[in-house]
Amino acid sequence: MRKSEFTPLQNLLTAVINQYNLKPQFDGATICHQFKKLTSGLWNQKADQNIKALSYKKGTLTIQAKSSGWAQQVQFKKTAILEQLSKTHPSITIKNIHIQINPGMSP
Question: Taking burial as the number of CB atoms within 10 A of a residue's CB, which of 18, 19, 49, 75 is the most buried?
Answer without folding.
Answer: 75
